[in-house]
Amino acid sequence: MKHSRIMAGIKCVVFLLVLTFQWTFIRGDTEVSCIFMERCLLPCSYDGTAVVIHWHQVSAGDLNVHSFYNNQDQLKLQSERFRGRTSLFNDQISAGNASLQLTKVEVRDEGKYKCYTSTDGESQKSFINLKIRAPVRKVNIQQVGNIITCSSEGIYPEPELAWSTSSSSNSTSNTTTTVRQTERLLYNISSSLIVSDSGTDQDYSCTISTHRNRKRATLFKPASVCWSNTETTILCPPSDTSFSYLIWRFNHSQSIVTRSGADISYTVYAGWEQHVKHVSESGSLTLRDLTADHEGIYTCELSDAEETKVSENEIRMMPTDGGEVP
Ligand SMILES: *[C@@H]1O[C@H](CO)[C@@H](O)[C@H](O)[C@H]1NC(C)=O
Ligand SMILES: *[C@@H]1O[C@H](CO)[C@@H](O)[C@H](O)[C@H]1NC(C)=O
Ligand SMILES: *[C@@H]1O[C@H](CO)[C@@H](O)[C@H](O)[C@H]1NC(C)=O
Ligand SMILES: *[C@@H]1O[C@H](CO)[C@@H](O)[C@H](O)[C@H]1NC(C)=O
Ligand SMILES: *[C@@H]1O[C@H](CO)[C@@H](O)[C@H](O)[C@H]1NC(C)=O
């Protein structure tokens, strides 16, 4: 008789455990996604008037993130990593709001957080699963010799990179992709593609993506321009949509001119003032007073929110004396 009562008691405890487990399981953790270096809100609410609030990062060995009791923040035990980056909404604590604000979020902040609140009557716990994202901001593409390089920096989580060409039948299998993680745990990605001399007669695109966003850069087939007098006009890639940013560069390094969006005005960089005659609506650049020193590669880069379009133009001076052709 006594034995069976104990058994019934055990069954009851097991039943309660299962129930509690299921309840926690069904309720799950709240997913919060925040952007690298931005501000982040970890929500937490409770019933009653909290006397004690403790925030912990449980996935990092139960680090103390922020505590509040005796009507004030208690930061003596706060982990060094969160110093100066946390706050509660003190004026709303009495209204059941124990949400934590975290600023300048790092990749290391990713993980599971526990919000513990205790009121006179009871204590409550809730969990937040924080994910950090550093979206792909810009994809760079350029060609030097017969190597096309595509790259982007400061991405999280780990990105993927894919090449494609304008003529889908031609493969882009000869690529080498390198991914490096920085000290702040962000990813730099870079890929190079070797093109045969005959294979440069098409456009190459490179797409870098995470599961949250993607950006593309296209390198248009190169053009060769000769100038016969001291003036010439070089074209940008064809662009059906309006672009938000234009930059012209010389030999992959020097900036010549930039223009943003629908602006009519443009900024000319030092050393190029007397050579930039005009920048057209479509971005084409008219140069004047050119000398042999201006021979080289002129890159036009147009970008908008999704895509960067690049064309590289090789500009050479036409031999004037009709003599030796190089
Ligand atoms: C707590 O207060 C902040 C600031 O007013 C608000 O953004 C947030 O939504 C509130 N959270 C909850 C759980 O009430
Ligand atoms: C890839 O490029 C290397 C270096 O130019 C070359 O030796 C190799 O044959 C290429 N492979 C393919 C499959 O094109
Ligand atoms: C990642 O890219 C940034 C920006 O170009 C650079 O400063 C940094 O050194 C790179 N880090 C690694 C590990 O490649
Ligand atoms: C595509 O590749 C073939 C060889 O496989 C080559 O003959 C052809 O020129 C390439 N097309 C372009 C547009 O580069
Ligand atoms: C620009 O690059 C070309 C080769 O593409 C080179 O011949 C020329 O000397 C370079 N010009 C300057 C000013 O660096």
UniProtKB/TrEMBL annotation:
Swiss-Prot/TrEMBL keywords: Cell membrane, Disulfide bond, Glycoprotein, Immunoglobulin domain, Membrane, Receptor, Signal, Transmembrane, Transmembrane helix
InterPro entries assigned to the protein according to its UniProt record, in alphabetical order: BTN3A2-like_Ig-C, Ig-like_dom, Ig-like_dom_sf, Ig-like_fold, Ig_sub, Ig_V-set, T-cell_Activation_Regulation
Subcellular location: Cell membrane
Domain Ig-like: 42-129, 148-218, 233-311
Segment forming the signal sequence: 1-28
CC per GO annotation: external side of plasma membrane
GO term, biological process aspect, one: T cell costimulation
Membrane topology classification: Single-pass type I membrane protein
Database matches in PROSITE patterns: IG_LIKE
Chief site of localization: membrane
PANTHER family: BUTYROPHILIN SUBFAMILY 2 MEMBER A2-LIKE-RELATED, T-LYMPHOCYTE ACTIVATION ANTIGEN
Protein name, entry field: Ig-like domain-containing protein
Organism the protein comes from: Astatotilapia calliptera
Upper classification of the organism: Eukaryota, Metazoa, Chordata, Craniata, Vertebrata
